[in-house]
Amino acid sequence: MMIIQTTKDCSANNKNRILEEVKTLGYAPATVKTQYGAYIVCVGSAPFDIRHIGNLPGIRDVHVVKDSSKLVSRQWKVETTRIPLNGDLAISRNDFTMIMGPCSVENEEQVAEMVKFLKAEGVRVMRGGVFKPRSSPYSFRGLGIEGLKMLYRHCRENGIYVISEVMQVSQVDVMHDFVDIFQVGTRNAQNYNLLDELGRVDKPVLLKRGMSSTLEELLASAEYVFSNGNEKIILCERGIRTFENAYRNTMDLNAIPYLKEKSHLPVFSDPSHGVGLRSYVEAMALASVMAGADGLLMEIHQVPERAISDGQQSLSFAEARRCIMKVNETVQLRKKLVLIDEV
Ligand code: PEP
Ligand code: MN
């Protein structure tokens, strides 16, 4: 397996020559063009002289990648991915990003109050589902695109970014101008048509782990988005199904350091769905920070008992305020410990 990065100005002739050379070596090439670069992913295992390939005109770099995930692997890209949001905010391993909001967008009053709360607490990204994947068809399915437009307007007026779940291909276009980050839910983690489509937009995609996906499968899903042209991917652990039924899901904290080592992408944690019970959410949020999470996705509600969905795992404003304070302290502590490591 090799990944060839071509130069920005690589001519069609040079590219064809590279493709011919790698085919002659016994590799099957796939060309990938993203908002950041151009690549030729070459599948095969034949031995080759890296200097020979590397010296062809139009090549920027050649990397050998043994991992089963390719473009999302850290084996070729040592520097980690930084995802700028429109303007002053970026998601990366050097920033810590807090995302909070309701499971579902319920009404305008709720949104206005919540935006005010988030602004006061310094939370810059708001979550809120308008297309809800519910386990029962009789449950509330979300306010739809009108709800998203309303959410977006309130957030924009207050300098807050929006993340919302996209459930199917046709919604990508419809939602595009009213989200800053597309969220792919656990139930769609392997919806490859949707992942293909999200690879064609220039907006970040937060990819949740399927509830019974292995980490390799999660990375493969990220590979779909990248290989279709979008490098702005955030991986998110959100708990998996195990035999344990004392809580909603089993938060796999192991996934955080593992994904950070295997991939160059930012890794987030969603402790709300991860444990699914409000009284344990803060503990799992802090544990996620210490495990290395680059951000948190959390559900909050002004009156959790009355939330239309996922009230049992949503923090009240008072709980959220306390949690934010502790998360900020924990992020500072983590930074200090890293500095000690570096000595
Ligand atoms: C959600 O974020 O509200 C949600 C439905 O999450 P998940 O896909 O992780 O269940
Ligand atoms: Mn939810």
Descriptive account of the structure:
The protein has two domains: 2-64, 2-Layer Sandwich (Alpha-Beta Plaits); 83-342, Aldolase class I (TIM Barrel), CATH 3.20.20.70. It is an alpha/beta fold and 343 residues long. It contains eleven helices and 14 strands. Strands 7-8-9-10-11-12-13-14 form an eight-stranded parallel beta barrel, surrounded by five helices. The site of manganese (II) ion has 4 residues, from loops.
Provide the helix percentage: 25-40%
Low-confidence stretches: none
Q: Which strand order spans the largest sheet, edge to edge or round the barrel?
A: 7-8-9-10-11-12-13-14
The counted number of beta strands is 14
Assembly form of the protein: single chain
Mean pLDDT: 96
Label the CATH architecture of the largest domain: Alpha-Beta Barrel
